[in-house]
Amino acid sequence: MAVTTLDSKTALIVIDLQKGIVSLSSVHPMDGVVKHVTALASAFRKRGLPVVLVNVAGGAPGRTEQPRNHREFPPGWADLIPELNQQPQDHVVTKRTPGAFTNTGLVEHLRSSGITQVVIVGVATSNGVEATARQAYEFGFNITFATDAMTDRDAEAHSYSITRIFPRIGETGTAKEVIDLLEKSA
């Protein structure tokens, strides 16, 4: 379903746009993703709506079939990219799991601000973005995805999340469509 509306209490959640991750290869040029994310962040801030900047600073415990390179990342790897123009009022979440809600206090922060909807963007579509979205859905938030403001390392996984998962739990559209809705509601 296309983006139809934004609640008056909507927050932007930006997943893992940090120095180490944006330096990795991705299926869409990272500069385009960053451009769309920064436009969204600017539009949310202009309207006094919350911006949540999420980074990942280590891996979750437990065994997996695929080896993990880092439980702890090298210095600077988890630093948010400067293009995000982090502001004092932005809420920063550091996570150690794919989803931004696990053991971070994010749900409490959003609820205490009266947030009923989230717009989720970032990297990787099939991991951090999808995991955060699934958690937001389970917590009862309305969800919108700006699909041109996200990317993945795997084209098939990116496409599957956007075409199969996201339409089941929220609405999808472009960053411009979200910004246009913000402007109409102002």
Describe this structure in words.
- The chain has 186 residues and is α/β, with parallel strands linked by helices.
- It has one domain: Isochorismatase-like (Rossmann fold, 3-Layer(aba) Sandwich).
- The chain is built from 6 helices and 6 strands; from the N terminus they run βααββαβαβαβα.
- Strands 3-2-1-4-5-6 form a 6-stranded parallel sheet, with helices on both faces.
- Strand 5, helix 5 and strand 6 form a beta-alpha-beta unit.
- The chain is globular, with a radius of gyration of 15 Å.
- The protein starts with 9 loop residues before the first strand and ends with a helix.
- The mean pLDDT is 93.
CATH-wise, what's the superfamily?
Answer: Isochorismatase-like
Which percent band covers the strand fraction?
A: 15-25%
| Bulk shape | globular
CATH topology: Rossmann fold
Give the biggest sheet.
6 strands, parallel
Number of helices: 6
How much helix, percentage-wise, in residues?
Answer: 25-40%
Element pattern in H and E: EHHEEHEHEHEH
Domain Isochorismatase-like: 10-176
Organism: Ferrovum myxofaciens
GO molecular function: hydrolase activity
Enzyme class: hydrolase
